[in-house]
Fold each of these.
Amino acid sequence: MPLDEYDKIAHLLRRAGFTAHPDELDAAAARGLQATVEDLLNFERFPDVSPDPEILTALDLPQSDFNRDDFLNKLTRWWLHVMATTPRPLQEKMVLFWHGLFATSVRGLEFWQQIYLQNENFRGNFDPDTGQLLRPALGNPFPVGSFRRMLEYLSKDPAMLYWLDNQFNVKKSSEVGSNENYARELHELFSMGVEDVVAKVPNYTERDIRQASRALTGWRVLQRAAGFTFPRVFSFDSARHDFGPYEHLGKRGGTNADFIFDNIVRHRNPGQKQSAVGRFLGFRLFQFFGYEDPEPEIINALADVFDGAYGEEPFNIRNMLRVIFTPGNLVSEAFYSERAFRARVKSPTEYVVSLVRLLTFNRATGRPDGLSSSPNVRRLVQNGMIQMGQQLFAPPDVSGWREGLAWISTTSILARFNFANDILALQVTQGGIDLTRLLAQAGLQEALPQQRYGEVVDFFARLLWPSPPSADAREALIAYLQAPIPNASSNDVGNLKIRGLIHLMLAAPDFHLS
Amino acid sequence: MNKTTRREFIKKSGLTVLSVGLSQQVFWRHVRAASESVLTQAAALSPVDRVLVVIQMDGGNDGLNTVIPLSGSAASLYRQYRPTLAIPEANVLPLGTDAAGTLIGFHPNLQLLKELYAQGHVAVIQSVGYPNPNRSHFASQDIWHTADPEGRKRTGWLGDYLDVAFPSSDNPLLAVSLAGARLPLMLRAEHVLVPAIGSVDNYQFRTQPSGDHQNKMRAFLALNRETASDHRLREQIRLIALDTYESVEMLQSGIQRYTADPTIVYNMQNPLARALRQVAQILAAKLGTRILYVSLGGFDTHQSQATPHANLLARLSEAIATFYADLVRLGQDDRVLLMTWSEFGRKVVENGNQGTDHGTVGPQLLIGTRVKGGIIGEHPSLRAEDLNPGLGDPKFSVQSLDFRSTYATILEKWFLVDSREILGGAFELLDVLQG
């Protein structure tokens, strides 16, 4: 059965954003699918998120006063809050995409502050040449501009230069630079992969890696720059640089990494119509937004857009996203298909953000309040993310997190259950969810004393689950609401039962799916 | 009851038990009875009823101050290179002579391990490492975890073993990690799910208030018992959720079977002892668990290392000795093998901060009643020509032992499986285990 327009909008807002409150869904439905897609894609229409003053203050602390773990907790809380509250959900979803693709971990960094700069770089708000945070940083192509330019901004990113050692890469010989670590991941993980995603032929040779490493020599981070407390300004050291010419992906020439970046984005394997990078990104993007293992036709259609096959600007990520989300083409048919609907396992990030978004939504302002910055919440969220298996800014390795069903294990199921319990157990004064307001805005403050159990279950199912509860599930939840709590005072029972109901719905299979 | 029907029982008939309104107590008893009867049988069905306990010494243990040379050039060079850190000869606990004729001994804080060694239960494997050593903690740990020096594999060697040896097991506690929230890569498998349990006490469904726990769990089970066979992903999630429920129940009820012995006291200030006590609890519960993983951190001793390193070795020694005594008491020592590992040894030459930097090879210990005690291999040579130029750590040489030899030996001689596919090749087998 094809999805109706309302289902399509709900699906779109779950995938291209972080789920929507029923009020937002109703508003989007009134505007229509096409207009909703355009609002998501052209997110510059809406204000950008604000930086967190606490984080900015920490960046300026002398290194001796800088507390890594505290900083990471603040940063994690802030980014989750941003994802839950941003008026630009697709922008934030793409920052998350790039964090997973260009996976960088603080565990490999001496200066953890750099990971925040990278996060802003992926948002388009960092200029590596000056080390400045700007909103936006003019010329920065992230998160939806030219991928060709992104490779440049990624390669200049201070955290990346530390993480994959390219800052130590100096001229060595006509065969190789002194450190090929970054050159390798640039090909293998960041742009095209070992094999062409469709043709399954090798994309490059070991020699291509070594030659590329030559072109990436001399890229450094200034150890000291006026006004900054840690290394954050990119610098090019011509004395350490190998000026070529290089032999890379079948071409000879170049004096710097521009040659390598140009070769990468245009690289086609013999007999292949689409570029290797177009296919790789088409595959990764559709896998992230649509479903796992997309068909070759979908990958190729997205690669054509990347390649500018129809005269559009090449290498443009926003154009690819437009094709995925705008109805009326082969790719979006797949995106809005039954196969895609409710068929993605939420990552821990999506899990947390969606629950925060839905449960802190204020119907009076039409916006979610987001995640409190109280120390209780910061700790709870950081621990929860670690237990659930996705500590932001600390992916397990440079290939990022394994998505899909890999998110679900006995450990993570328990972690999600316990996280939902803990966050619901927090009182408003501790940064917890304002249940009184939630119930009042739903007209349900008296619902339990009046034994309107079914109404309560239906309200929360509509709020939290992608589809209505089955008769059995509804019955089990009603039975739960009715089951007495030994030793609880009658004043508390209503509140405890509502919290328990929400907890159960967040721990159910339906809430793990997007 | 075979595996399928056990799953059916827990996942389907449990619902019937509930829905006909039996009391909670009766329900729990049913679940327990089901787990016990089947697990006993499942254990009997499997080819080998043996257990491996992995002890990670996280941070890069200073092997040279763990197993110390007492004779030959190594002894004199050791004292020369370690002006402040060398352990006085008189304090070293002599073990015996190795294959190259070097007398070696334990750090004085390994007294309890020395006693186990004297009883023939400890094999000291020397100079273990791999060619082209990587001195990054993360890279080198990944190499040890995956048994892949190229660093390309995404599953661990023990995870691969679980996939090979237990392709159709539905025991959610086949292996258990007690080393924090993140599953060590060594146990990551394609198919078998291994829980990472921070601690046995925390491996529970938390509900507030506790008085509502039974109500909540009943609803949780009901929500996860609801099939939607047309939705494959939802089905998989709910089955894992039921596995989770089952593993929590198995673990929490199982560990009740462990009773402490007043003469065997785990030092609860010692994190490794705390973890090994939980290992003993899990083993006593007879849950069919084959691999348990624990970790002791703090071995990255770049400065003023003498005291902290000595304390760590004391913890290691104390925890293992207590655990071993407990295994003997529980009658399980015969089926349990312990293996220690660390991502690398440290430099021979101490640094300017009374510490040592990341190095290469180091010793590994195998401990257990079925271990053939003794010294395997040669102490690393400390002669200048045998050190990596400019780096001051032993080269990986013909005298060194590839770490995959230890793995291959455990796979072939302890778990009785073919190691070649798991390790991507054949490695020398060590004569360290009784048949």
Amino acid sequence: MNRRHALRHIALISGGLALIPSCDFSKDDILAAYQNLKVTTSQKVLLAAISDTIIPAGEIKGALDLEVPDFILVMVNDCFTKENQEKFTAGLTAFPAYAEKTAGKKFDALSTKEKEELILNGTKLEGDDTPEGKERGNIAYFLNSTKRFTIQGYMASEYIQTEIIPYSLIPGEYNGAVLISDLQKPRING
Amino acid sequence: MANLNIRSKQERTYQAIVIGSGISGAWAAKEFCDLGVKTLMLERGRNVEHIKDYPTTNMLPYEFPHRNQIPQEIQEANPVISRCYAFREDAMHFFVKDTDHPYVQEKPFDWIRGYQVGGKSLLWARQVQRWSDFDFDGPARDGFAVDWPIRYKDIEKWYSHVEKFAGVSGFKDGIAQLPDGEFLPGYELNVLEKYFAEQLKKHYGNDRHMISARCAHIHGNAEYFAQQGRAMCQNRNLCQRGCPFGGYFSSNASTIPWALKTGNLTLRPDAVVHSIIYDDEKGKATGVRIIDRLTKETEEFYSDVIFVNAAALNTNAILLNSTSNRFPNGLGNDNGLLGKFVAFHNYRARVSGQYEGHAEFTTSGGRPTSGYFPRFRNVYKQETDFLRGYAAGFSASRGSGPDTSGIGMDLKNSLLNPDKYGPWRVGSHMMGETIPKETNFVALDPNQKDEWGMPQLRISVDYDDNDEKMVKDYIEQMTEMFTKAGFTNIQSSDSKQAPGLDIHEMGGVRMGKDPKTSLLNANHQLHAVPNVYVTDGASMTSTSTQNPSLTYMAFAARAAHHAVAESKK
């Protein structure tokens, strides 16, 4: 538990970097918090930008507000096989060049709509055995994993489960025939 | 190993010793204590006190660093336990890791264990269906194993006895092969499950039933259970973490605190049983030798009554390791059958589907049980090309999943407003009876030892042709029933999972009428050592299809009363 706490602190600090545009990234350190991955500070910033595109902030907080990038890296670091970790980091590494080649600009410089399109199309890339095909496969794997963990980390966050859609440890007596039309549907404005 | 214990023999003498604090051992201890018998209960694992030692019980989903997933490193180091459905971040501390307690698999066998006070009673699926004479008659009628020395009438009142105290919810369904019991109000099936039950009546008359499964959860009579310090089940479905309400039955919530309250129980955790001591001169067992889990010191405890409830395969291991001049091959093992005729339940196959109807309905809240198919194959007579049959679980559910195909604000809106209902999903899994065979056995490994110097268990258990035919039949029959009910997108699968993952391993110390072909008599006493009783899964002559824990509880209570009656003679 102590190790994890320490990691969270480091992750918090590095996550904070993403919000300071003047920060100097010339020394692109490998983040020690994710010891099974060789993820650099700038790669984590990129991952944060991608997760922010997948679930952006609005009236309700977005993925970046909830430290989802750290959650993604914790899950990949702790719960992926070595092979899948390699695919994920290869995809992450290849993504900036892919963005430039496909969209004609650096990811940062794209509009929200362009970013969304790039990521959605990227999740649908199909790989094959050629070196280019492998790279496409890695990018798709990286983006799909990132999207899945962004959704999980966002929905299963303290903020969502306490303030937005409160989770109850005691769900109440079972009703096996509830009319859907009788259910109240509070619209939550994302 | 030197016996460093200096406490006097008298201080280490009890009127009864129970080995194991799981579901059956704690029942034996509770009965003894209620009858005024000074009892020592030995448990190889650490103490787990009700509520106090349930560290995850009130944790929220976001408090688990991996949202309940087991990290890869742990999975890779512990492939066996990682295959267990309940081995998750919230309950992993109650399961034995492969690396801590190795064993030898002559054939693949997933041995799922819980080494702590309460054993697997903290982790069980809480399904409690009675056996009937269609089950006890099985071996004699169909010519396998040996005839059970008891019948339903011998155990009926003990089922009632344990059901009342444990708290069993269910309906009186009036089904011959699944006798009714002492039930608290049952949990209603949902609208689609009821529809399916009606369809079965329509297409199969009174031959096939799908009912609400009887479960060991408190669903009524709260005042009575308050005496045990337990409260109504809150439908949390987080049972494997340990229940702070005591809503489901476990040794920890119920029988152990009850027995402790009598003042007659001494609970000794961290006591790895080495063997049962047999006195050649006295011609009986006189005590139990343990190794302290932490200090590795040997200690002996003495009693005239010894109950072995270490969980099926470990009970075998203890008896096999209890050698003496009189019993060189294991305690009570004159016929060489100790460790043999091990069987289990066949949980390999599943069938799933969906239903487009009843689209206006969904469900709300939670419930601790689901649907249950009592066995319908070969009940009254042999009618298929395989022996015996299978029970099955069944459930229908309907969720409102969000559409996750989008991205950005669209995705966020969809996630926070999940109002798209898919069709009802239905699913079933088989619970097949397997035939005990001499070739399915456990033995002590002659060379490999564990951390305490105890021989490792070698397990050699496999499926046979009867099991393969049963898997095929279950898939065919369930597919047919689903089809007749109008379900669509019907899929079936055979996991080919190894025996053991069902966590219903049984036998090796079977009951029987004849000392030449069995180890235990009708009262659960070793034929050759009548002051040693076995009332856990090891005693099972055949397996039937029902989840076995209720039967072990009834066996333990019945045998404890027998032992007390014997001691008064």
